[in-house]
Structure formats: C-alpha cells, structure tokens
Amino acid sequence: MTSAAVDDRLTGRVAARIAEGRASRVRWTWTFIPIAAAAALILAVLSSRREPAREDIAPRGTDITVASAPAPEPAVSRTRIPVTRPIVPIDQAPAPPLAPIEIDPIAVGPLVETNAIQITPIAIDRIDISPMP
Questions:
Q1: What is the DSSP string of the chain?
Q2: CA atoms of 6 and 69, how far apart (whole Å)
C-alpha cells in the first residue's frame, strides 16, 4: 500500500474528503439536537401528567361493601403510670449513678524517636571563574 506511487491529486482529494465529512457531521448534529430536545420535552410532559396508580381506590363498576367488626379489647390497659420524680431539663438533671469501668492500661512505645544530628562544617574553596570573552 505504501510502496505505490502517489499521484498529484492526492492532497486535494484528502482535503475535499475531510471538508465533506466535517460538513455532513455538522448538518447531522444540528438536525439531531432539536429532535432530541423535543423528545425529552414530550417525555417530561407525559410523565408529569401521568397519575400515579392508587391502590386505595377501587376500579369503576365494582360494588364496595364495608363490613364492620367490633374493635378488639386492648390486651394492655391504657392507664398512665404516675410519675414519682419531677421532670427537669436535661442540662439540670443529675448524672446517673454508674460504677466506673476498670480498664488495663496499654503500654505503647513512642511512635517517633528523635536523634541529634551532628553537622560538620563543609570547607569550600573559592572558585575563580574568568569572565567570558
């Protein structure tokens, strides 16, 4: 493929093909964008108008009869327990009587140890640089 001779019109044909491809892509994009926007708008309108299915409403044409049954007796009486202590705000309430919890200490060594660094002076001789011509 690459060993074939190149004709004189190759660069012109490639440039024309690139320009033709770019023009067709731009035309397709400007056609597709309004169609997609209209479809999204229609979908949004239709989904907002749709009523949610309600299970508590019976379908039309059905006969609804309500059966009444006596309420069962409560198993627990609903009497209130008398409060023996006065109710106080939480910030004024006494601390609850709790025994302290005994915890064994954990022996952990230091995470970082520092060492002294001895820096000795470095002897640097003078460097003579001649000026450039």
A1: -TTSPPPTTHHHHHHHHHHHHHHHHHHHHHHHHHHHHHHHHHHHHHHHHSPPP-SSSPPTT--------PPPPPSS--PPPPP-S----GGGSPPP--PPPP--------S--------PPPP------PPP-
A2: 97
Indicate yes or no: pTM above 0.90: no
Long-range contacts of 75-78 (CB under 8 A, 24+ apart): none
Write out pLDDT tens, residues 53-87.
665 565 666 666 666 667 666 565 566 666 677 77
Q: How far apart are CA 53 and CA 74, in angstroms?
A: 35
Per-residue buried b or exposed e for 56-72, using 16+ beta carbons within 10 Å of the residue's own CB: eeeeeeeeeeeeeeeee
CA-to-CA distance for 21 and 28, rounded, in angstroms? Answer: 11
